[in-house]
Structure formats: C-alpha cells, structure tokens
Amino acid sequence: MLLRLHPLWLLAAGYWLWMIWACAGEWTNSEDYNYGWFVPPLALYFLWKRLEGAPRADSLPPGAGAGRVLAWAVIVLSLLVILPLEIVRQTPIHWRPNLWAVGFLAVANTLAVAWLTGGRARFKIFLIPALFMLVGVPWPTFLESAVAYPLMPVVTRWAVGLLHFLGYPATAAGTTITLPNCTVGVEEACSGLRSLQTALMVGVAAGELTRLGAWGRVALLAVAFVMAVVGNQVRVLMLALAGISGGNQAVENLHDTAGYVVLAILLGGVGLAATLGKRMQTVVNHAAPLPTSSPVTPPAVSARSPSRAMGWAVLLCGALALLGANGWYWWRASLAAPPSPPLLAPVGDAGFVIDKNVPPAILGVLQPDQYTYIREAMDGTPTRAIGYHFYWKPRRGNANQLYHRPDRCMPGAGWRIDGEITRETFRLGGREVTFNVFPFRGPGGPALMLWGSYLNGEPVEIAFTSDVYVNTSNLAQFIRTGTRDYSYEVAACVMPYPEGVRPGLAEIEAYANRVFTAVP
Q1: Exposed site from 402, 444, 445, 465, fewest CB < 10 Å?
Q2: Is residue 303, in this structure, part of any structural domain at all?
Q3: Is there a single domain that holds both residue 413 and residue 465?
Q4: Quick one: which of 114, 3, 62, 7 has its CA closest to 305?
Q5: Please, which residues bridge with residue 491 across strands?
Q6: Are residues 186 and 280 in the same domain?
Q7: Is residue 330 a part of any domain in this protein?
Q8: C-beta neighbour count of 117 within 10 angstroms
Q9: Residues 507 and 492 in one domain
Q10: pLDDT tens digits, the chain, 520 residues: what are they?
C-alpha cells in the first residue's frame, strides 16, 4: 500500500508526525492540553467520512494553472524552513509559535499535495480535517493570558455572589475564594484554560460530525464557549459548597468529579445545540427550491500528476533536513553543560518547617522529581507556605516547566507586580546564588518574592516581558553547545514587609539564608 502511495502524501504525513512529536510533551505533561491526544484520531475519522462519498482518486484531475505553481512553491519553500525551525524548536527556548509553525507547514503541504494530485475536489476533502488538527496545538502564552486570565476572576466573583445569595460567607482575592474553613481556587493558579480549549475542540468536532453550514458551525462554537463558562461556574460552586461542609479534604475529594460535571455540561449542551442545528438546517434545505443543474464541461486541458521521482526527491530532502537538525544536537551534545544535581536545599531555621505536603494538583501540573514546601511554624505546627523547592532530573519536556513562573502564576492568586523585577546575587552557604526579586502586592500587603531558576546548575534568564520562556540571548549558546536535555531547578520564598519599609539587599540576603542553603 505504501509503495503505491504517491511519495508526496508520505511527505504530508511526515509533517503531521512532526507536529504530533512537537506537541507530545505538552499533551502529556500539561493537563490543559491532555485533550490533544484525541485530536489526531478525530481528524482521521473526519477524513475517512469525507473520503467515503468522494469520487475515486484516479478519476480526479490534478490541479492546474496558478494553483499548481503555488502548491509547488509551498512544498519547496517548506523544505527550506525545516532545518532552522527544528534546530530552534529543540532548544529550551520553547517558543510556542514554533509549534504553530510546524502545524501550519503540515496544513499547507497537505492542501498543496491534495491540489496537485486531485485538484479542487480533493482540496475540499482535506481542508476541514487538516484545519481541525490545529485545535490541538498549544496556544501562545500571550493568547492564553489574554483569554483565560480575565475570565477567571469573573467566575470567582460570580461564585462568591452565588454563595452570598445562598447565605454563605465568602470573599474573593484574585481567583481564590476564602471560606470560613478553607480556600477554593478557580482552577490552580496556572490553570483555567482547560474548559475553554476543550470547548473549542468539541465545538469544531460537533460541527463537522453534523456537517452544519458555516454559520451553524460559528454558532456551535459560541454555544461551546458558553457551556464551558457555565460548567466551570457550576464546578467552582460545587467545590465551594463542599469546602463549606467538609473543608479542604472534601474539596480535594470532589475535585475530579466536579471536572467530569464540567465535561458533561459541555458535551450535553453542544450535543443538544448540534442536534437542533442539524434539524433546522434540514428543514431549511427542504423548504428551499432545488437549484437547476447544468452539465459540467470537463477542462479542455488537464494538468499531469506530479512525477513520482520528483515526489521521492522532495521526501528525501525533507527527511534529511529533519535528521540534520537532530544530528547536530547528537554531535554537539558533548559541549553542553552537564546536568546538575540540586544547587539549593531548604533549611529548617527557627520559625520554618520543611515538608512534602504539596497540593496534588500542583504536583500533577509541574511533575517535579524532588519537591518540598517551606512553611511558617506556629508552636511547631506548620501553617501557610512561604516557599518551595522543585527539581527535575534531565529529560525532554522540562521546558514546559519554564512556563510556570511568578509573573504568570501569582496574579491568579490575587497578587500583582508592584515595581521592577531585578536580578540579585546573594551568598548562601559560602556560595554565590542568583535570584530574581519580584516586588508583589498581595491580599495581605506588600511582599518580595525571591525566585531562582537554574538550568544545569546555572541561573537561567527568563524573559518576563516576552512570550519566549527563556531570553533569546541564550539561543545561540544553546544551539552551539547542543543543549536540549537538562536538569531544571526552582527555589522561591516570599518575604512580607510592612507598608513603606521595603527591606534592603542585606536584609533580603539574611532572609534567603534562613530559608535556603547552597549544596556543596
């Protein structure tokens, strides 16, 4: 079967495998994108259904004219992009638009091959399944922030309003609801997109399954997003009521069940809307007069199908470009900084307690290999967390953790940056260590967060004002040294201070030495 298939289709399939490979880390490690694994099977199913009623492949004339020239231009120019795109994608920069670039290459080449081998008819067959694959590509972080963060406080305030209406006391701080005996977060601080992104996939899939028209599909997407927001509102209210009656343990026990309720509301609402939309479309189509058909005149000149020899040559070039990018890292790996064991360790100074009581939801998202919380102690009893230490052993996918950082996560808990972020070097345990100092203003007043991020034992510069995870100034060094497998470590602590009395560097250094020490 593969030998009979035109090599250009193998090239298109290669682009899709590349996209799945590029997205696999986020689909596996990020709960927001776990749904991505369902996208390729659904896309194949949509393609299969569209091919069922299509004419035989050998009866479709190849595309001709300007479309043919454009299709070949897409295929050839794409080959020039593979090598540099894959080299950059392998680095810890982990810029999500790279994933979108791979996805667009897959879509463009699939449609180009469809045009070359079957003209407009085959182009239409592959258009929707190819575009559907893009719903699984992780959103750029600037888009996540623009869509999710404004919605999360709204859901929080609505939940507090509903609790007041039911007669329960509750207050909101950011996306955290404080109840008499516990707190409930609207998702975790770094989450909240899952229902919206799943709604996008479900809405597009339902529109294709029912074959609605363009406006029907747009309406179905709107219904899906409304159902996602409603479902998330119900979920937060369920967790809050559980917390009021049973505390934090009841919230934790109900967490997964509440998530299934969101999914049920989403699927039920979209399914009902799709069914009604299909019925309305059927009624309208039956009421409309049938168009008069005119005989189709075949084109006087038909373009020839692309030669198999040229297809094999293009496929070979694409494979060599992808292998060349990975070969570069295999060859240069010896120059990369060796993975490092943990650089820092928390210390149990007076007033602090170290434990592993990290919320399961946070561990599920971050998936560290070693983890501890540093908590304040009241008469020897651990109370609120003031710091943490996480360490990831060398493995692919660690770049996903670079996304979870204070400037993106803390606003979800009601904290906002109140000043300039600086990089300071302190002496801990006889060793100099670099921290980023965040000036925050939280529900309890001003505080500094000391946040250290270390890649292979070296402090890594994070681009806090950019969609890129790591400063692009490190890009050349990562490529030159073949750095793609690395250990990663994060150490952080919060230092509250009285209003208007910000501590100096000496006080900050003394506080850091109470919380952390450098490992010899």
Answers
A1: 465
A2: no
A3: yes
A4: 62
A5: 389, 452
A6: yes
A7: no
A8: 21
A9: yes
A10: 444 678 999 999 999 999 999 998 888 877 778 889 999 999 999 999 988 877 766 556 776 778 888 999 999 999 999 999 999 988 877 788 899 999 999 999 999 999 998 888 889 999 999 999 999 998 887 787 777 667 777 888 888 888 888 888 888 876 778 888 777 766 644 445 677 888 888 888 888 888 888 888 899 889 988 888 888 888 888 888 888 888 877 877 887 787 788 788 888 888 888 888 888 888 777 766 655 544 544 444 456 677 888 889 999 999 999 999 999 988 887 777 777 889 999 987 777 888 888 887 788 778 889 999 998 877 666 677 889 999 998 876 565 677 778 887 777 667 888 888 999 999 988 889 999 999 998 877 899 999 998 888 888 877 776 666 666 667 888 888 888 878 889 999 999 999 888 999 999 999 999 899 888 7
> Which two structure tokens, joined as six digits, stand for 17?
């495998």
Host domain of residue 180: 141-284
Amino acid at 351: G
User: Coil, strand, or helix at residue 517?
Assistant: strand
- Is 109 in the same domain as 190? no
Are 252 and 192 members of one domain? Answer: yes
Q: Tell me whether residue 362 is in a domain.
A: yes
Domain count, the chain: 3
Q: Which of 138, 162, 189 is the last residue of a domain?
A: 138
pTM, full prediction: 0.80
In a domain, 125, yes or no: yes
Annotate 264-307 with three-state secondary structure: HHHHHHHHHHHHHHHHHHHHHHHHCCCCCCCCCCCCCCCCCCCC
